Amino acid sequence: MSVQDLEQFQLHEIPALGRLYLSAAGNAARSKLTSSASTQTLPAARHTVTNARVDLDRLTDFQRLVLRSAQDTLPSGYVHTFAFPVAMSVMAREDFPLPLLGMVHLRNHVTHLRPIHYTEPLSVTAWAENLAGHRAGTQVELVAEVRSGTELVWTGRSVYLAKGVFLPRIDRPQARTEREDFTPPLPTAQWRLGADAGRNYAKVSGDFNPIHLSSLSAKALGMKRSIAHGMYLASRVVAEAGPALPEPFEWSIEFESPVFLPATVSVRISDAGAPGDMAGTTFTGWNQRSRRRHFHGWARPL
What we know:
The chain has helices at residues 17-33, 56-65, 76-91, 197-205, 215-219, 230-241, and strands at residues 7-11, 45-52, 104-112, 122-134, 137-148, 151-163, 189-193, 249-255, 263-271, 281-286, 293-301. By secondary structure, it is α+β, with helices and mostly antiparallel strands. The chain folds into two domains: 1-174, Hotdog Thioesterase (Thiol Ester Dehydrase, Chain A, Roll), CATH 3.10.129; 182-302, Roll (Thiol Ester Dehydrase, Chain A), CATH 3.10.129.10. Strands 1-2-4-5-6-3-8-11-10-9-7 form an eleven-stranded mixed β-sheet, with helices on one face. Helix 2 packs antiparallel against helix 4. It is globular.
């Protein structure tokens, strides 16, 4: 089924993430009470919000949190937080085959097509595709498109994993994919993240997923402690790596291991090519003590 064949659902406004999490919790409770088999397919639906406005106070708080100076155009990571509730409304549907609560963020790819002024009314469309097996469960891709009028200005593709959820008719890889050996390089920065880092990001993004808020709520969903939001890490590293890039640009990030809070994250941001050739940057974040890599990716001009 192509994207054009998906049924269109018009939302009146950007959904509140807190309500979506409550809805997801209700759906999870109902699924435990029913003996019927859960659906094995993704909803054939696109969710859209039109002419939505950016909250200037939230934007300013976001810019301060990811160490960007205040400006009139939207950081690429902020656009994700703006569009994310529409994508999450797809995952919170009763006919979505995977549990929303406890979903693990695996990777992102974003195309930022031009500067977006905070006063522009924006439309967001989101849908799910590519339900697939994973050695640790089942993964799915959420796609979001942001438009100003009819002009496409930003697209994002996020991959999430429902850990421990194996749908009967979804094949999964039998062999574990070998990761490349990682030798920590010299860091260019050290990020010191407090136990409240998840709560602080939740306040500016609206993403109050329990796995990020406290050790108690994270343990209830199978984590040993609360973990940093993947999009906080992505937004911060792209904000630090991206100022030298012209717009349009694109960036990609893959998350390899969670950042358990509190934490110190070693970060290296490097030119991808020779100085001045506009090849973009690469970035890596890791735990200096355990030598485990948390994330890696790149940002480059289109």
